[in-house]
C-alpha cells in the first residue's frame, strides 16, 4: 500500500492549515455578524416613531376635505373643527398669555357663542343672536354666587343664587350699566 505524501506532511504545516481554516471561519462569522447588526440597525432606524411632530396637523375625511386641524401659529395653539362644506364650526385655543377660549360658529360662519377666561381667571360666556344681539354671562360677587347677564346696550341684571337647597325664586339686583 502506497502512502500519500500528505500523510507525511510536516506537523507545522498541518497546524498552519488548521489555523487558516479556523481564521476563514472566523472571518465568515464576523462578516455575517456585521451584516446582521447592520440589518438590525436599519430596521430600527426605519421603524415609525410613536411621536410625530409638526406645526400643523390636518385630519381629512374620506373625500380629502379638512375636518379638523391642530396647529401652532403666532405663539398660540388651536384645535379647529370644520363641517362638510369646509366652514369653521368650532375653535378651541389658548391665547398668547395661555388663557383658554372656545368659539362656536353658526352655519353661515357668524360667531354664535364664545367662552373665554378673563385676566383674573373667571369665565365669561358671550352669546350672539342671529340679529347681532350679544349677551354676556359672567359670575359676580366675591363668592361667585351671582350671575351677571348683560346686554350689548349696557342693560344688565344680576341673579343671586340662594345658599339653601330649597327652591327659592331668583331675585334681580337691578339694572346696571355695562362696565
Task: Note down, in words, how this protein is organized.
The protein has a domain of 110 residues: Outer Surface Protein A, domain 3 (Alpha-Beta Complex). With 179 residues, it is α+β, with helices and mostly antiparallel strands. The chain is elongated. It has an eleven-stranded antiparallel β-sheet with strand order 1-2-3-4-5-6-7-8-9-10-11, with no helix packed on it. The C terminus is likely disordered.
Keywords summarizing the entry:
disordered C terminus, alpha+beta, 179 residues, Outer Surface Protein A, domain 3, 1 helix, 11-stranded antiparallel beta sheet, single chain
Portion in strands: 35-45%
CATH architecture verdict of the domain at 67-176:
Alpha-Beta Complex
CATH class of the domain at 67-176: Alpha Beta
Low-confidence stretches: 166-179
Q: How far apart lie the N and C ends? A: 124 Å
* Helix share bin: 10-25%
Q: What summary fits the major beta sheet?
A: 11 strands, antiparallel
Predict the CATH topology of the domain at 67-176: Outer Surface Protein A, domain 3
- Rg, alpha carbons: 38 Å
The succession of helices and strands, N to C, reads HEEEEEEEEEEE
- In DSSP terms, counting alpha (H) and pi (I) runs of 4 or more, how many helices? 1
Shape: elongated
Arrangement of strands in the largest sheet? 1-2-3-4-5-6-7-8-9-10-11
Secondary-structure-derived class: alpha+beta
Mean pLDDT metric:
79
Number of strands: 11
Please give the structural blueprint.
Elements: H1 11-46, E1 56-60, E2 66-73, E3 76-82, E4 88-94, E5 100-105, E6 111-117, E7 123-128, E8 134-140, E9 146-151, E10 156-160, E11 171-176
Amino acid at each position: 500500500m502506497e502512502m500519500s505524501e500528505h500523510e507525511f506532511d510536516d506537523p507545522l504545516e498541518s497546524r498552519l492549515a488548521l489555523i487558516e481554516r479556523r481564521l476563514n471561519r472566523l472571518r465568515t462569522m464576523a462578516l455575517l455578524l456585521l451584516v446582521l447588526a447592520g440589518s438590525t440597525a436599519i430596521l430600527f432606524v426605519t421603524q415609525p416613531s410613536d411621536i410625530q411632530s409638526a406645526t400643523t396637523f390636518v385630519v381629512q375625511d374620506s373625500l380629502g376635505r379638512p375636518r379638523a386641524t391642530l396647529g401652532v401659529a403666532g405663539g398660540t395653539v388651536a384645535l379647529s373643527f370644520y363641517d362638510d362644506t369646509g366652514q369653521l364650526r368650532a375653535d378651541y385655543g389658548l391665547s398668547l398669555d395661555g388663557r383658554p377660549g372656545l368659539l362656536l360658529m353658526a352655519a353661515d360662519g357668524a360667531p354664535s357663542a364664545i367662552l373665554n377666561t378673563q385676566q383674573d381667571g373667571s369665565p365669561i360666556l358671550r352669546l350672539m343672536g342671529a340679529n347681532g344681539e350679544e349677551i354676556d354671562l359672567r359670575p359676580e360677587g366675591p363668592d361667585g354666587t351671582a350671575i351677571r347677564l348683560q346686554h350689548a346696550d349696557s342693560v344688565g341684571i344680576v341673579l343671586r343664587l340662594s345658599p339653601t337647597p330649597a327652591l327659592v325664586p331668583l331675585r334681580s339686583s337691578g339694572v346696571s350699566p355695562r362696565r
